[in-house]
Amino acid sequence: MTNTAPKFSISSLLSAGLLATGLLLTGCASGPEVKANAAQGTDFVSYKTFGFASPLGTDKGGYQSIVSQYLKAASQRELEARGLKYEPNAPQLLINFNAALNDKLMVTSMPTMGVGMSRSYYGYRSGMYSTWPMYQDQVSSYKEGTLNVDLIDAARKQMVWEAVVTDSVTQKDVEQLKQAIDIAVAAAFAKFPLAATAPMPVQAK
């Protein structure tokens, strides 16, 4: 199935001062593809505070991008809903982000009457027997983006959790940057080992 109804984008992510491109998560019922990994033996309940890496992977040119600001706000909301406290000076956990964009090709096989052949050429079969259609490959290009959310044990300087959110890209949500990032980050933290203990704001569709 070809996705035509985008749900959110990190195209917004990189377009707002980072790379002018990003990731779009489509509106299919299955939602974006999210993969998460946690370091074995990590006691996530023991972490009480968090802060942000500096510079973030989504910063550029020595300044904090709009993308980074929105990612920080969305992640702070998610972690505070799970009982952690923002501590900028000496946090137990550090959060970092990165986003990437790649060109992809989609190949779709479509029935055809045959390359260079007219319908009349196959008319001799009409009414006598059924046959199979010939197929012709149609190639279309699209963008695929990836958002990484990393959590690092600040004392050990070791990553303890990672979420990777991936899907196809369009420019449609560039004008809805904050909403796009909120949804992307929420999708990532839905895989976090600690469930939210405080009500989360309802995301607009």
Summarize the structure in words.
It contains three helices and eight strands. It is α/β, with parallel strands linked by helices.
Structure summarized in a few sentences:
By secondary structure, the protein is α/β, with parallel strands linked by helices. It is built from 3 helices and 8 strands.
Cross-sheet strand order for the largest sheet: 3-8-7-6-4-5
Query: What's the Cα radius of gyration?
Result: 23 Å
State the assembly state of the protein chains: single chain
Mean pLDDT: 75
Structural class: alpha/beta
Which stretches are low in confidence, meaning pLDDT under 50 for 5 or more residues running? Answer: 1-8, 15-29
- Distance between the amino and carboxyl termini: 21 Å
Run of helices and strands: EHEEEHEEEEH
Q: How many strand segments?
A: 8
Largest sheet: 6 strands, mixed
What proportion of the residues form beta strands (DSSP E)?
Answer: 25-35%
Number of helices: 3
Which percent bin holds the helix content?
A: 10-25%
Name the overall outline.
elongated
Task: Give short descriptive properties of this protein.
205 residues, alpha/beta, two-stranded antiparallel ribbon, 16% helix, elongated
